[in-house]
Amino acid sequence: MAVLIATVLMERFERRCRLAPSAETERGAAPS
C-alpha cells in the first residue's frame, strides 16, 4: 500500500513540476 501511495505522490509531484509554477502559486500549495 505504501508503495502505491508513494507512486501516486511522485506522479502528482512530477505533473506539478512540469506544469507552470504560476498555477502552483495560484492554488497556494508550495512544494515541500
TrEMBL record:
State the name under which the record lists this protein: Uncharacterized protein
What organism does the UniProt record list as the source? Answer: Amycolatopsis mediterranei (strain S699) (Nocardia mediterranei)
Q: What is the lineage of its organism?
A: Bacteria, Bacillati, Actinomycetota, Actinomycetes, Pseudonocardiales
